[in-house]
Design a protein that fits this description.
Blueprint lengths: L1 E5 L3 E6 L2 E4 L19 H4 L1 H11 L5 E3 L5 E2 L8 E3 L10 H10 L2 E3 L4 E2 L5 E3 L6 E3 L1 E7 L15 E9 L1 E2 L5 H4 L6 E9 L10 E6 L2 E7 L7 H9 L9 E3 L7 E2 L5 E6 L3 E9 L4
Parallel strand pairs: 6-17, 8-14, 9-20
Antiparallel strand pairs: 1-2, 1-5, 1-14, 2-3, 3-4, 6-7, 10-13, 10-18, 11-12, 11-17, 12-14, 15-16, 15-19, 19-20
Length: about 280
């Protein structure tokens, strides 16, 4: 199933270039009172929502997908987890060892956006790079998760862009500007991607192929990332992994159009513009 969030926080199921408005399926979500439980409530109750979607989809309104504004399919992640230098791009063994020693980093939740919102560049005196990545969305709570069980904790996958300004500051600061974590165009449920370890990725900028690779180049695969991260902190429904990027990282400028594609997941088109200043 391919679930999207669109327009004014409506829920859709994607079918052959169209979106069925299945927002009514959200009625199955439990009622919550403060303090809210950790995680994203839709992802935490994904099985129940998906069952309701299947029941009502055939009678739901159908709209061409190019007529809706696509938001991030996850609204309220507890954490956005980045994996730096996680692809083998021909580095020597010392470089690979150094990359593995870096571990992971966190991005502010406020950096999350959807493809229709675009990327708003700031501090443009710096080089600001694109990175196409497989987005991995956690479906249930877990800590100290063994690698053999890790994929059972995945709710689904999405195309992701991790935007990276150059600078001396820590990654978590530089990469946490608004719109610097793009997720979309929808969430593909995990049952449709049984093997995330062999997926082609590509990024085009203004029609030019800049990045091309395959998830089998990951130094830590999806299961290994989940095992490693969960040894440090508890994962919750809706937590997002940005799992690393293949070779070809390069700069962006206002006016650029990025087209990011991941096999079995989808294609996401994102426009780049400058942040408005007061």
């Amino acid at each position: 199933m391919r679930l999207c969030r669109f327009d004014n926080n409506r829920l859709g199921v994607v079918e052959d270039g169209h979106v069925r408005d299945v927002t009514a399926a959200l009625d199955v979500l439990p009622a919550y009172r403060y303090p809210l439980p950790p995680g994203d409530m839709l992802i935490a109750n994904l099985d129940a929502v998906a069952a309701r979607v299947r029941a009502i989809a055939k009678d739901s309104p159908l709209v061409p997908i190019d007529r809706v504004a696509l938001l991030s399919p996850v609204a309220n992640p507890g954490k956005i987890i980045g994996a730096p230098m996680n692809y083998d791009t021909g580095q020597d063994q010392a470089a690979i060892a150094n990359a593995m020693s870096i571990g992971l980093f966190l991005k502010a939740n406020g950096s999350l956006s959807g493809p229709s919102e675009g990327i708003m560049l700031r501090m443009m005196e710096r080089q600001i790079d694109h990175e196409v990545e497989l987005g991995v969305v956690i479906g249930r709570e877990g800590a100290n998760i063994p690698r053999a069980d890790a994929l059972t904790y995945v709710a689904g996958y999405a195309v992701a862009l991790d935007i990276t300004p150059h600078g001396k500051e820590e990654r978590s600061l530089r990469k946490s500007c608004a719109t610097y974590s793009v997720l979309g165009p929808w969430l593909v449920t995990a049952d449709e991607v049984p093997d995330p370890t062999d997926l082609d990725l590509q990024l085009q900028v203004n029609g030019e192929v800049r990045q091309q690779g395959n998830t089998k180049q990951m130094l830590r695969g999806v299961a290994a990332l989940i095992e490693y991260a969960s040894s440090f902190y508890t994962l919750y429904p809706g937590d997002i992994f940005l799992s690393g990027t293949p070779a070809g990282v390069g700069p962006m400028r206002p006016g650029d159009r990025l087209v990011a594609t991941i096999e079995s997941v989808g294609t996401m088109t994102v426009d780049v513009r400058a942040t408005k200043t007061n």
